[in-house]
Give the backbone structure.
Amino acid sequence: MAVLSVSRRTVTRSVRALGVVSASAALALGAAGNAAACNINEFSAEAKCEGDKGVITVTDVDPAGVPATVTVFLQNNGADIEKIGEQVVKGSKKGTTITFEEDWKPNAEYRIHVTAKPYVDEDIKPNLVTPSTPCKEDEEESPSPEPTPSEETSAPAEESEEPTPAPSESTSESAPPADTSDNAPSPAGESNLAETGANSNTGMIAGVAAALVAIGGGAVFFGMRRRGANSQR
């Protein structure tokens, strides 16, 4: 009886030990299986350029190929301000990449959340920060040519000066038409008399005329006397 009781105790202890070992192995295998099935460390994100446009890519290297939902949020000061998009990715050993078209700005911050129940429900850490250089450089406006000194001085003068009237307009408006009748030449000897009514030479002319009249009268007188003398003979 003593031998049988010892054997039973030994078997019971062995079974218990085997059960503990089996449970530990199951837990280890379960943890290993969960780790192999899907893990947040198997996801990575990157901001890239495709031509002149920006994109955000997320790569899943889960060899088990567990479908996972990836959601991208634009953040500002630690808060989500815009949902960029959501896609499902099925990872592979070589890696499966999905692309979100997002024309990101330099130094922008994005939060990327991965959900693969019952394995993963968390964000990729740290948040994605875009490069400081944009995909397309803004074209700088060419400076306008500076005006030359002549242009700078002449422009104000042109604005301040008032248009002056043409010579023909000023003459016709300000001066009356010339009287050509007064300026026309008059016959000799009449101009002074017509203008003044008398002349400084009038006395001399009168004297000469009187002398001529006297001489003529004397000649007539002597002629008549000579004719009378001849007739008496």
